[in-house]
Amino acid sequence: MLRTFLENTSLELSYGVPDIYKEHPLAISIREDGKKIIESLLPSNFKDYKVEGSAGRGQWADIPWVAIYNCSITDKASQGYYPVYLIPNSTNKIIFGLAQSFQEAEKEFGKYSNENLDKQAEIMRMKIPEFSEYFSSSIPKIDISGRLNYRNGHVYHIEYDATNLPTEEKLIDDLHKMLDAYETLFFRGGRDSDNFLISEQKDEDITIEETHKKKVHYLIERPSSSQIKKVKKKLGYICNGCGFDFEKVYGALGKEYIEAHHLIPISELKKGESRKITEKDFSVLCANCHRMIHRLDDSSNLDELQKLIAKMEE
C-alpha cells in the first residue's frame, strides 16, 4: 500500500512533472491517496495527527510531498517542524525526513535561512540522539530546480530509491520510528529557540503556563513565540553563558538576536501537571552556548556551563 504509492508516484514523476496540473490523476493521488494511506498506518496514539499531501498550488511543485503534523506544533507545512515524504521530479529518489519549514525560515531570516535551519536541526538532534541509529543526520542530496529549498533543516532523514524500495514492512517501521522521533523531540522541548526580532512592548511581568494534558494522547502546551519574544526582551540579548553580544559584533544584523533556553526542562512535566513560569525560568544564550548546555548531563545547569567557560579562559 505505502510501497506501491511511493513507487508509482516517484516513477511517474521521474520523467518530470506533467504538462497539465488541474485535475491530473497523479496530483489527486498525492493529495488524497497519500493522505489516506498514511492515515491508515498511524499507530493508535497518533490518530489525532493531521496528514496532508500536496502536488503544488495551481501548478506542479518541483517536489510534491506528504506531511504529518502534530497539531500542537503545527497544522501546515509553512510553519514548524514535521515528518514529510519528499518526492522530487526528474529523479528516482524519495526523501523521508523530520524537517522544518523552509518558508518560515526564509520569512524570518532571509538569505541566512539555510544556516539557521541547519543550526536549529543540530540542537534538535541533541535532544533525540538515540534516533541516529536509524536515520541519517546529513543534509539530504536533493536536486533543486525551483525556488523552494527543502534540503536544509532536516533533523533526521532516510533516502529511498523508488526503483528498489524496501519492503512494505520496512517502510512502515521507518514511518513509526520517525513518528517516535517526532513525538520524543516534542516531549523534550522541540524547538525551544525562536529567533525573531522583537517589536517594542511595555515592560511588564511575564508569566507563562505550561501544561501536560491528555487529548488523544499526552501533549504539552508550550509557550507561544510571542511569549518567548517577551522573555528575550526582558532578559536582554547578551549571552548568559559567555557574554557574547550579537549586536556588538555584527551591528544592525545582530540587533535583538539571541536564543531562549528553558532552565526547567519542559520534558519534566508530569502527566496532568501544570506550572507557571516566569522569565526567571529561562536563560538567553548564543548558538554555541545553547548547543553546549544541551550536551551537559543537566541542561538546566547554567552555572556549570559558566564555570566551564571561565576555566577554559584561564
Describe this structure in words.
This protein is α+β, with helices and mostly antiparallel strands. It has 2 domains: 186 residues, 2-Layer Sandwich (Metal Transport, Frataxin, Chain A); 106 residues, no CATH class. It has 9 helices and 10 strands. It has a 5-stranded antiparallel β-sheet, sandwiched between helices. A hairpin with a 6-residue loop joins β3 and β4. α3 packs across α4. The radius of gyration is 21 Å and the shape is elongated. The protein starts with a helix and ends with a helix. About 10% of the residues have low confidence.
Number of strands: 10
**N/C terminus separation:** 62 Å
Globally, the shape reads elongated
* Overall CATH architecture of the largest domain: 2-Layer Sandwich
Please, what is the average pLDDT?
A: 82
Q: Which CATH first-tier class of the largest domain would you pick? A: Alpha Beta
Helix proportion range: 25-40%
Summary of the model, kept short:
With 314 residues, this protein is an alpha+beta fold. The chain has nine helices and ten strands.
Keywords:
314 residues, 10 strands, alpha+beta, Metal Transport, Frataxin, Chain A, five-stranded antiparallel beta sheet, 2 domains, three-stranded antiparallel beta sheet, elongated
Q: Helices and strands in order, then pairings?
A:
Elements: H1 2-13, H2 25-41, E1 50-54, E2 65-69, E3 81-86, E4 93-100, H3 102-109, H4 113-127, E5 156-161, H5 168-187, E6 207-214, E7 218-221, H6 225-235, H7 246-250, E8 259-262, E9 274-278, E10 282-285, H8 287-293, H9 302-312
Antiparallel strand pairs: 1-2, 2-3, 3-4, 4-5, 6-7, 6-9, 8-10
Helix pairs in contact: 1-2, 3-4
